[in-house]
Specification:
The strands form four sheets. Strands 7, 8, 9, 10, 11, 14, 15, 16 and 18 form a nine-stranded mixed β-sheet that branches. Strands 1-6-5-2-4-3 form a six-stranded mixed β-sheet. It has a three-stranded mixed β-sheet with strand order 12-13-17. Helix 5 (136-154) packs antiparallel against helix 10 (253-267) and helix 8 (193-199) runs antiparallel to helix 11 (313-325). The protein is of the alpha/beta class. It folds into two domains: 4-131, Leucine Aminopeptidase, subunit E, domain 1 (3-Layer(aba) Sandwich), CATH 3.40.220; 141-459, Zn peptidases (Aminopeptidase), CATH 3.40.630.10. The two termini are 27 Å apart. A hairpin with a 5-residue loop joins strand 12 (295-297) and strand 13. It is built from 15 helices and 20 strands. The longest helix has 19 residues, at 136-154.
Length: 460
Protein backbone atom coordinates (compact mmCIF):
# COMPACT_ATOMS: atom_id res chain seq x y z
CA UNK A 1 0.00 0.00 0.00
CA UNK A 2 1.13 3.54 -0.74
CA UNK A 3 2.83 5.23 2.22
CA UNK A 4 0.65 8.31 2.31
CA UNK A 5 2.55 9.77 5.27
CA UNK A 6 5.48 10.51 2.94
CA UNK A 7 3.31 12.58 0.58
CA UNK A 8 2.23 15.27 3.08
CA UNK A 9 4.83 17.20 5.05
CA UNK A 10 4.86 20.26 7.34
CA UNK A 11 6.00 23.43 5.60
CA UNK A 12 9.20 24.55 7.28
CA UNK A 13 10.35 26.78 4.46
CA UNK A 14 12.07 24.01 2.53
CA UNK A 15 12.65 24.32 -1.19
CA UNK A 16 9.52 23.58 -3.21
CA UNK A 17 7.91 24.38 -6.51
CA UNK A 18 4.86 26.64 -6.43
CA UNK A 19 1.35 25.75 -7.50
CA UNK A 20 -0.96 28.63 -8.45
CA UNK A 21 -4.60 27.59 -8.07
CA UNK A 22 -6.77 30.29 -9.60
CA UNK A 23 -10.55 30.46 -9.77
CA UNK A 24 -11.94 31.35 -13.23
CA UNK A 25 -13.58 34.47 -11.79
CA UNK A 26 -10.22 35.69 -10.49
CA UNK A 27 -8.16 34.65 -13.51
CA UNK A 28 -7.98 38.01 -15.32
CA UNK A 29 -7.01 39.88 -12.15
CA UNK A 30 -4.37 37.24 -11.33
CA UNK A 31 -2.92 37.34 -14.84
CA UNK A 32 -2.69 41.13 -14.83
CA UNK A 33 -0.35 40.97 -11.83
CA UNK A 34 2.02 38.43 -13.39
CA UNK A 35 5.36 39.24 -15.05
CA UNK A 36 5.57 39.47 -18.82
CA UNK A 37 7.09 36.01 -19.23
CA UNK A 38 4.07 34.47 -17.48
CA UNK A 39 1.60 36.35 -19.65
CA UNK A 40 3.56 35.30 -22.74
CA UNK A 41 3.53 31.65 -21.68
CA UNK A 42 -0.20 31.75 -20.97
CA UNK A 43 -0.87 33.32 -24.35
CA UNK A 44 1.27 30.68 -26.08
CA UNK A 45 -0.82 27.96 -24.42
CA UNK A 46 -4.00 29.77 -25.54
CA UNK A 47 -5.40 29.70 -22.03
CA UNK A 48 -8.67 31.51 -21.53
CA UNK A 49 -9.16 31.16 -17.80
CA UNK A 50 -11.58 28.29 -18.20
CA UNK A 51 -11.70 25.68 -15.44
CA UNK A 52 -9.19 22.97 -16.24
CA UNK A 53 -6.70 25.28 -17.97
CA UNK A 54 -3.15 24.57 -16.83
CA UNK A 55 0.38 25.47 -17.79
CA UNK A 56 3.98 25.20 -16.62
CA UNK A 57 5.20 28.72 -15.92
CA UNK A 58 8.87 29.69 -16.33
CA UNK A 59 10.88 31.29 -13.53
CA UNK A 60 14.21 33.15 -13.33
CA UNK A 61 16.44 30.08 -13.36
CA UNK A 62 16.48 27.85 -16.41
CA UNK A 63 15.55 24.75 -14.40
CA UNK A 64 12.96 26.47 -12.23
CA UNK A 65 9.24 26.57 -12.89
CA UNK A 66 5.85 26.74 -11.23
CA UNK A 67 2.44 25.33 -12.07
CA UNK A 68 -0.81 27.09 -12.92
CA UNK A 69 -4.17 25.37 -12.49
CA UNK A 70 -7.45 27.14 -13.18
CA UNK A 71 -9.99 25.46 -10.93
CA UNK A 72 -13.60 26.23 -10.06
CA UNK A 73 -13.87 23.73 -7.19
CA UNK A 74 -14.33 25.11 -3.69
CA UNK A 75 -11.48 25.16 -1.21
CA UNK A 76 -13.43 22.52 0.76
CA UNK A 77 -13.24 20.02 -2.10
CA UNK A 78 -10.83 17.13 -1.52
CA UNK A 79 -10.37 16.83 -5.31
CA UNK A 80 -9.35 20.44 -5.98
CA UNK A 81 -5.73 19.68 -6.93
CA UNK A 82 -5.95 15.91 -7.28
CA UNK A 83 -5.18 16.05 -11.00
CA UNK A 84 -1.81 17.62 -10.21
CA UNK A 85 -1.07 14.94 -7.64
CA UNK A 86 -1.43 12.45 -10.48
CA UNK A 87 0.40 14.29 -13.25
CA UNK A 88 3.25 16.38 -11.83
CA UNK A 89 6.76 14.96 -11.75
CA UNK A 90 8.25 13.77 -8.48
CA UNK A 91 9.23 16.62 -6.20
CA UNK A 92 8.05 18.92 -3.44
CA UNK A 93 5.28 21.47 -3.91
CA UNK A 94 3.39 24.16 -2.03
CA UNK A 95 0.41 26.32 -2.89
CA UNK A 96 1.16 29.93 -3.77
CA UNK A 97 -1.81 31.17 -1.74
CA UNK A 98 -3.54 29.59 1.23
CA UNK A 99 -3.33 26.11 2.65
CA UNK A 100 -4.30 22.91 0.86
CA UNK A 101 -6.71 21.88 3.64
CA UNK A 102 -9.14 19.24 2.43
CA UNK A 103 -7.27 18.98 -0.88
CA UNK A 104 -4.47 17.09 0.89
CA UNK A 105 -6.66 14.00 0.72
CA UNK A 106 -7.12 14.17 -3.03
CA UNK A 107 -3.42 14.89 -3.53
CA UNK A 108 -2.52 11.76 -1.59
CA UNK A 109 -5.18 9.51 -3.13
CA UNK A 110 -4.16 10.63 -6.61
CA UNK A 111 -0.95 8.70 -6.02
CA UNK A 112 -2.73 5.47 -5.12
CA UNK A 113 -1.76 2.56 -7.34
CA UNK A 114 -3.01 -1.01 -7.42
CA UNK A 115 0.05 -2.85 -8.66
CA UNK A 116 -0.27 -6.24 -6.97
CA UNK A 117 -0.33 -7.97 -10.34
CA UNK A 118 1.92 -5.80 -12.48
CA UNK A 119 4.94 -3.61 -12.12
CA UNK A 120 4.12 -0.14 -10.85
CA UNK A 121 5.35 3.08 -12.41
CA UNK A 122 8.70 4.41 -11.32
CA UNK A 123 7.55 7.98 -10.72
CA UNK A 124 8.73 9.11 -7.30
CA UNK A 125 6.51 10.74 -4.68
CA UNK A 126 4.96 14.15 -5.15
CA UNK A 127 5.16 15.79 -1.74
CA UNK A 128 2.76 18.56 -0.73
CA UNK A 129 3.71 20.99 2.01
CA UNK A 130 1.22 22.41 4.48
CA UNK A 131 1.30 24.99 7.21
CA UNK A 132 -1.38 22.98 9.04
CA UNK A 133 0.59 19.92 10.16
CA UNK A 134 -2.11 18.95 12.66
CA UNK A 135 -4.31 17.92 9.73
CA UNK A 136 -1.79 15.50 8.26
CA UNK A 137 -2.47 12.57 10.59
CA UNK A 138 -6.23 12.56 9.98
CA UNK A 139 -5.71 12.91 6.23
CA UNK A 140 -3.29 9.99 6.17
CA UNK A 141 -5.77 7.84 8.11
CA UNK A 142 -8.55 8.65 5.64
CA UNK A 143 -6.31 7.99 2.65
CA UNK A 144 -5.15 4.69 4.14
CA UNK A 145 -8.72 3.58 4.87
CA UNK A 146 -9.82 4.54 1.36
CA UNK A 147 -6.88 2.66 -0.13
CA UNK A 148 -7.82 -0.40 1.93
CA UNK A 149 -11.27 -0.43 0.34
CA UNK A 150 -9.75 0.01 -3.11
CA UNK A 151 -7.19 -2.75 -2.60
CA UNK A 152 -9.70 -5.27 -1.26
CA UNK A 153 -12.26 -4.59 -3.97
CA UNK A 154 -9.68 -4.57 -6.78
CA UNK A 155 -8.25 -7.94 -5.74
CA UNK A 156 -9.73 -10.77 -7.83
CA UNK A 157 -11.91 -13.35 -6.12
CA UNK A 158 -9.20 -16.02 -6.52
CA UNK A 159 -7.21 -14.10 -3.91
CA UNK A 160 -10.07 -12.52 -1.93
CA UNK A 161 -12.28 -15.29 -0.62
CA UNK A 162 -13.97 -15.61 2.78
CA UNK A 163 -10.69 -16.79 4.35
CA UNK A 164 -8.90 -13.71 3.01
CA UNK A 165 -11.51 -11.40 4.51
CA UNK A 166 -10.97 -13.24 7.79
CA UNK A 167 -7.23 -12.70 7.46
CA UNK A 168 -7.67 -8.96 7.00
CA UNK A 169 -9.99 -8.81 10.02
CA UNK A 170 -7.37 -10.71 12.03
CA UNK A 171 -4.66 -8.25 11.01
CA UNK A 172 -6.92 -5.37 12.04
CA UNK A 173 -7.73 -6.97 15.39
CA UNK A 174 -4.07 -7.64 16.18
CA UNK A 175 -3.06 -4.11 15.22
CA UNK A 176 -5.47 -2.60 17.74
CA UNK A 177 -5.65 -5.19 20.50
CA UNK A 178 -9.15 -6.31 19.56
CA UNK A 179 -10.76 -9.74 19.85
CA UNK A 180 -11.49 -11.84 16.76
CA UNK A 181 -14.20 -14.52 16.72
CA UNK A 182 -15.03 -16.66 13.67
CA UNK A 183 -17.98 -19.04 13.28
CA UNK A 184 -17.31 -21.19 10.22
CA UNK A 185 -18.72 -23.87 7.95
CA UNK A 186 -21.17 -26.35 9.46
CA UNK A 187 -21.00 -24.55 12.80
CA UNK A 188 -23.14 -21.84 11.15
CA UNK A 189 -26.04 -24.18 10.42
CA UNK A 190 -27.71 -23.83 13.81
CA UNK A 191 -26.92 -20.26 14.85
CA UNK A 192 -26.67 -18.51 11.47
CA UNK A 193 -28.72 -20.62 9.07
CA UNK A 194 -29.08 -18.05 6.29
CA UNK A 195 -25.33 -17.41 6.15
CA UNK A 196 -24.81 -21.17 6.03
CA UNK A 197 -27.42 -21.68 3.30
CA UNK A 198 -25.94 -19.05 1.00
CA UNK A 199 -22.35 -20.22 1.41
CA UNK A 200 -22.66 -23.97 1.70
CA UNK A 201 -22.15 -24.71 -2.01
CA UNK A 202 -18.66 -23.22 -2.04
CA UNK A 203 -15.50 -25.31 -1.96
CA UNK A 204 -14.22 -26.26 1.49
CA UNK A 205 -11.37 -23.74 1.38
CA UNK A 206 -13.95 -21.02 0.70
CA UNK A 207 -16.39 -22.11 3.40
CA UNK A 208 -18.85 -19.50 4.74
CA UNK A 209 -18.16 -17.78 8.02
CA UNK A 210 -19.28 -14.97 10.31
CA UNK A 211 -16.28 -12.81 11.23
CA UNK A 212 -16.58 -10.69 14.37
CA UNK A 213 -14.18 -8.19 15.92
CA UNK A 214 -14.84 -6.51 19.26
CA UNK A 215 -12.85 -3.56 20.56
CA UNK A 216 -13.07 -0.79 23.12
CA UNK A 217 -14.22 -0.20 26.66
CA UNK A 218 -17.46 -2.10 27.45
CA UNK A 219 -18.54 0.95 29.47
CA UNK A 220 -18.69 3.09 26.33
CA UNK A 221 -21.68 3.24 23.97
CA UNK A 222 -21.92 0.13 21.83
CA UNK A 223 -22.01 0.50 18.05
CA UNK A 224 -22.08 -2.17 15.36
CA UNK A 225 -20.57 -1.91 11.88
CA UNK A 226 -21.44 -4.58 9.33
CA UNK A 227 -20.41 -5.30 5.77
CA UNK A 228 -21.72 -7.74 3.17
CA UNK A 229 -18.83 -10.06 2.38
CA UNK A 230 -19.92 -11.99 -0.70
CA UNK A 231 -16.49 -12.77 -2.10
CA UNK A 232 -17.94 -13.80 -5.44
CA UNK A 233 -21.52 -13.97 -6.63
CA UNK A 234 -22.47 -16.35 -9.42
CA UNK A 235 -26.11 -15.63 -8.68
CA UNK A 236 -26.46 -19.17 -7.38
CA UNK A 237 -28.97 -21.36 -9.22
CA UNK A 238 -30.55 -18.14 -10.51
CA UNK A 239 -27.22 -17.84 -12.29
CA UNK A 240 -26.10 -14.46 -13.58
CA UNK A 241 -25.21 -14.04 -17.27
CA UNK A 242 -21.53 -13.64 -18.04
CA UNK A 243 -21.76 -9.85 -18.21
CA UNK A 244 -23.48 -9.73 -14.84
CA UNK A 245 -20.70 -11.80 -13.28
CA UNK A 246 -17.86 -9.71 -14.69
CA UNK A 247 -17.53 -7.41 -11.68
CA UNK A 248 -18.67 -9.78 -8.96
CA UNK A 249 -15.25 -9.76 -7.33
CA UNK A 250 -16.51 -6.46 -5.88
CA UNK A 251 -19.53 -8.00 -4.16
CA UNK A 252 -17.54 -7.95 -0.93
CA UNK A 253 -17.31 -4.16 -1.19
CA UNK A 254 -19.53 -3.77 1.87
CA UNK A 255 -17.08 -5.82 3.94
CA UNK A 256 -14.23 -3.67 2.63
CA UNK A 257 -16.04 -0.52 3.77
CA UNK A 258 -16.81 -2.04 7.17
CA UNK A 259 -13.17 -3.02 7.72
CA UNK A 260 -12.02 0.45 6.70
CA UNK A 261 -14.53 2.25 8.93
CA UNK A 262 -13.62 0.01 11.86
CA UNK A 263 -9.95 0.77 11.28
CA UNK A 264 -10.69 4.50 11.52
CA UNK A 265 -12.68 4.04 14.73
CA UNK A 266 -9.92 2.06 16.41
CA UNK A 267 -7.02 4.18 15.15
CA UNK A 268 -8.68 7.32 16.53
CA UNK A 269 -9.64 5.47 19.72
CA UNK A 270 -13.20 6.72 19.69
CA UNK A 271 -15.08 6.26 22.94
CA UNK A 272 -17.18 3.33 21.77
CA UNK A 273 -17.52 -0.39 22.25
CA UNK A 274 -17.15 -1.50 18.63
CA UNK A 275 -18.65 -4.67 17.19
CA UNK A 276 -17.57 -5.38 13.61
CA UNK A 277 -19.44 -8.16 11.80
CA UNK A 278 -18.74 -9.55 8.33
CA UNK A 279 -20.79 -12.44 6.97
CA UNK A 280 -18.29 -13.81 4.43
CA UNK A 281 -19.50 -16.27 1.80
CA UNK A 282 -19.17 -17.25 -1.82
CA UNK A 283 -22.47 -17.68 -3.62
CA UNK A 284 -21.53 -20.72 -5.68
CA UNK A 285 -23.29 -23.44 -7.65
CA UNK A 286 -23.06 -27.13 -6.75
CA UNK A 287 -25.29 -30.05 -5.89
CA UNK A 288 -26.03 -28.71 -2.41
CA UNK A 289 -26.66 -25.08 -3.39
CA UNK A 290 -29.75 -23.49 -1.87
CA UNK A 291 -32.66 -23.43 -4.30
CA UNK A 292 -35.38 -21.07 -5.47
CA UNK A 293 -38.44 -21.92 -3.41
CA UNK A 294 -36.55 -23.13 -0.37
CA UNK A 295 -37.77 -21.78 2.95
CA UNK A 296 -34.84 -20.68 5.07
CA UNK A 297 -34.80 -20.29 8.81
CA UNK A 298 -33.08 -17.23 10.20
CA UNK A 299 -31.26 -16.53 13.44
CA UNK A 300 -34.10 -14.22 14.45
CA UNK A 301 -36.66 -16.99 14.00
CA UNK A 302 -38.32 -15.50 10.93
CA UNK A 303 -38.72 -17.83 7.96
CA UNK A 304 -37.78 -16.60 4.49
CA UNK A 305 -39.03 -18.01 1.22
CA UNK A 306 -36.11 -17.78 -1.16
CA UNK A 307 -37.55 -16.38 -4.38
CA UNK A 308 -34.18 -15.50 -5.90
CA UNK A 309 -30.79 -17.02 -5.07
CA UNK A 310 -29.22 -13.88 -6.55
CA UNK A 311 -30.71 -11.83 -3.69
CA UNK A 312 -28.31 -13.46 -1.25
CA UNK A 313 -26.63 -10.43 0.31
CA UNK A 314 -29.70 -9.48 2.31
CA UNK A 315 -29.91 -13.07 3.61
CA UNK A 316 -26.41 -13.13 5.09
CA UNK A 317 -26.85 -9.62 6.45
CA UNK A 318 -30.12 -10.63 8.11
CA UNK A 319 -28.39 -13.13 10.37
CA UNK A 320 -25.49 -10.77 11.06
CA UNK A 321 -27.83 -7.88 11.89
CA UNK A 322 -29.71 -10.12 14.30
CA UNK A 323 -26.46 -10.98 16.08
CA UNK A 324 -25.47 -7.31 16.24
CA UNK A 325 -28.84 -6.38 17.76
CA UNK A 326 -28.61 -9.00 20.50
CA UNK A 327 -25.97 -6.92 22.27
CA UNK A 328 -28.16 -3.79 22.44
CA UNK A 329 -26.08 -1.32 20.40
CA UNK A 330 -27.23 2.27 20.22
CA UNK A 331 -26.23 2.50 16.56
CA UNK A 332 -25.92 0.04 13.65
CA UNK A 333 -24.30 0.89 10.32
CA UNK A 334 -24.16 -1.56 7.45
CA UNK A 335 -22.60 -1.41 3.99
CA UNK A 336 -23.55 -3.63 1.08
CA UNK A 337 -23.26 -3.78 -2.68
CA UNK A 338 -26.86 -4.83 -2.45
CA UNK A 339 -29.02 -3.89 -5.44
CA UNK A 340 -28.75 -2.98 -9.09
CA UNK A 341 -31.87 -0.90 -8.51
CA UNK A 342 -29.87 1.58 -6.44
CA UNK A 343 -27.43 2.02 -9.32
CA UNK A 344 -30.21 2.51 -11.84
CA UNK A 345 -31.76 5.16 -9.60
CA UNK A 346 -28.63 7.00 -8.49
CA UNK A 347 -25.75 5.95 -10.71
CA UNK A 348 -22.32 4.87 -9.46
CA UNK A 349 -21.36 7.96 -7.42
CA UNK A 350 -24.22 8.17 -4.91
CA UNK A 351 -24.71 5.44 -2.30
CA UNK A 352 -28.38 4.89 -1.63
CA UNK A 353 -28.77 5.65 2.06
CA UNK A 354 -31.59 4.34 4.24
CA UNK A 355 -32.22 5.03 7.90
CA UNK A 356 -34.92 4.47 10.49
CA UNK A 357 -33.73 7.60 12.32
CA UNK A 358 -34.25 11.02 10.75
CA UNK A 359 -31.63 12.73 12.90
CA UNK A 360 -28.99 10.17 11.92
CA UNK A 361 -29.91 10.43 8.25
CA UNK A 362 -29.69 14.21 8.41
CA UNK A 363 -26.23 14.04 10.03
CA UNK A 364 -24.98 11.64 7.36
CA UNK A 365 -26.31 13.68 4.43
CA UNK A 366 -24.91 16.95 5.77
CA UNK A 367 -21.54 15.36 6.49
CA UNK A 368 -21.41 13.90 2.99
CA UNK A 369 -21.99 17.28 1.38
CA UNK A 370 -19.50 19.04 3.66
CA UNK A 371 -16.60 16.68 2.92
CA UNK A 372 -17.25 15.71 -0.68
CA UNK A 373 -18.57 12.19 -0.03
CA UNK A 374 -22.18 12.65 -1.14
CA UNK A 375 -25.07 10.37 -0.21
CA UNK A 376 -28.71 10.25 -1.28
CA UNK A 377 -31.48 9.13 1.01
CA UNK A 378 -34.10 6.72 -0.32
CA UNK A 379 -37.28 5.82 1.54
CA UNK A 380 -38.03 2.97 3.88
CA UNK A 381 -41.60 3.21 2.64
CA UNK A 382 -43.91 1.24 4.91
CA UNK A 383 -46.39 0.84 2.08
CA UNK A 384 -43.94 -1.43 0.26
CA UNK A 385 -43.66 -3.88 3.17
CA UNK A 386 -46.48 -5.88 1.63
CA UNK A 387 -44.22 -6.65 -1.35
CA UNK A 388 -42.27 -8.98 0.96
CA UNK A 389 -45.31 -11.14 1.79
CA UNK A 390 -45.01 -14.88 1.25
CA UNK A 391 -47.80 -17.44 0.94
CA UNK A 392 -45.86 -20.05 2.92
CA UNK A 393 -43.30 -18.20 5.06
CA UNK A 394 -42.96 -15.02 7.08
CA UNK A 395 -41.48 -13.17 4.11
CA UNK A 396 -39.77 -13.50 0.75
CA UNK A 397 -36.25 -12.32 0.12
CA UNK A 398 -36.97 -10.69 -3.25
CA UNK A 399 -40.19 -8.93 -4.16
CA UNK A 400 -41.90 -9.66 -7.47
CA UNK A 401 -42.15 -7.13 -10.26
CA UNK A 402 -38.87 -5.30 -9.79
CA UNK A 403 -40.48 -2.19 -8.34
CA UNK A 404 -38.60 -0.18 -5.67
CA UNK A 405 -35.85 -2.81 -5.57
CA UNK A 406 -33.48 -0.83 -3.35
CA UNK A 407 -36.23 0.09 -0.90
CA UNK A 408 -37.67 -3.41 -0.62
CA UNK A 409 -34.16 -4.80 0.00
CA UNK A 410 -33.71 -2.24 2.77
CA UNK A 411 -37.14 -3.10 4.18
CA UNK A 412 -36.06 -6.75 4.29
CA UNK A 413 -33.02 -5.76 6.36
CA UNK A 414 -35.18 -3.61 8.64
CA UNK A 415 -37.01 -6.76 9.75
CA UNK A 416 -33.79 -7.77 11.55
CA UNK A 417 -33.13 -4.43 13.28
CA UNK A 418 -34.28 -4.14 16.91
CA UNK A 419 -36.85 -1.46 17.58
CA UNK A 420 -35.48 1.79 18.99
CA UNK A 421 -31.95 1.14 17.62
CA UNK A 422 -30.74 3.82 15.20
CA UNK A 423 -29.70 2.20 11.92
CA UNK A 424 -28.19 3.36 8.63
CA UNK A 425 -27.85 1.16 5.57
CA UNK A 426 -25.59 2.10 2.65
CA UNK A 427 -26.37 0.41 -0.67
CA UNK A 428 -23.03 1.37 -2.20
CA UNK A 429 -21.50 0.51 -5.58
CA UNK A 430 -17.91 0.35 -4.26
CA UNK A 431 -16.67 0.89 -7.82
CA UNK A 432 -15.83 3.68 -10.25
CA UNK A 433 -16.54 2.74 -13.86
CA UNK A 434 -14.62 5.79 -15.14
CA UNK A 435 -11.63 7.60 -13.69
CA UNK A 436 -11.77 11.05 -12.13
CA UNK A 437 -8.89 13.06 -10.60
CA UNK A 438 -7.78 11.21 -7.47
CA UNK A 439 -10.30 8.45 -8.14
CA UNK A 440 -9.04 5.83 -10.59
CA UNK A 441 -11.27 3.35 -12.34
CA UNK A 442 -11.86 0.39 -10.04
CA UNK A 443 -12.75 -0.20 -6.44
CA UNK A 444 -13.48 2.85 -4.32
CA UNK A 445 -14.88 3.95 -0.98
CA UNK A 446 -18.28 5.59 -1.36
CA UNK A 447 -20.00 6.63 1.86
CA UNK A 448 -17.03 5.80 4.07
CA UNK A 449 -15.89 9.32 4.92
CA UNK A 450 -19.44 10.58 5.54
CA UNK A 451 -20.09 7.87 8.12
CA UNK A 452 -16.69 8.45 9.69
CA UNK A 453 -17.38 12.17 10.05
CA UNK A 454 -20.60 11.40 11.94
CA UNK A 455 -18.96 8.84 14.23
CA UNK A 456 -16.06 11.17 14.97
CA UNK A 457 -18.45 13.99 15.81
CA UNK A 458 -20.60 11.80 18.05
CA UNK A 459 -17.93 9.83 19.86
CA UNK A 460 -14.65 11.70 19.40
Amino acid sequence: MTDFATLLQPDRGQSARTIHVVHPDAYDAWLAKQPARTRTTVAAHRLTGKAGNRAVLPADAADDWSMLLVCNESVESPWRIASLGEQLPAGTYRLADGEPGAAMLGWALAQYRFDAYRKGDDVGPRVLLTGEPAKIEETVRLATATALVRDLVNTPASDMGPADLERHADLLAKAHGATLTVTKGEALAKGYPMIHAVGRAAAQDRAPRLIEVEWGDPKHPRIAILGKGVAFDTGGLNVKPGGGMALMKKDMGGAAHALALASLVMAARLKVRLHLLIPAVENSISGNAFRPGDVLKSRKGLTVENTNTDAEGRLVLGDALTKAGEDSPELIIDYATLTGAARVALGPDLPATFSNDDALADELLKAGIAIGDPLWRLPLWDGYDDMLKSDIADMVNSAEGGYAGASTAALFLRRFIPKHVAWAHFDTFAWRPTAKPGRPKGGDALGLRAAWAVLKERYG
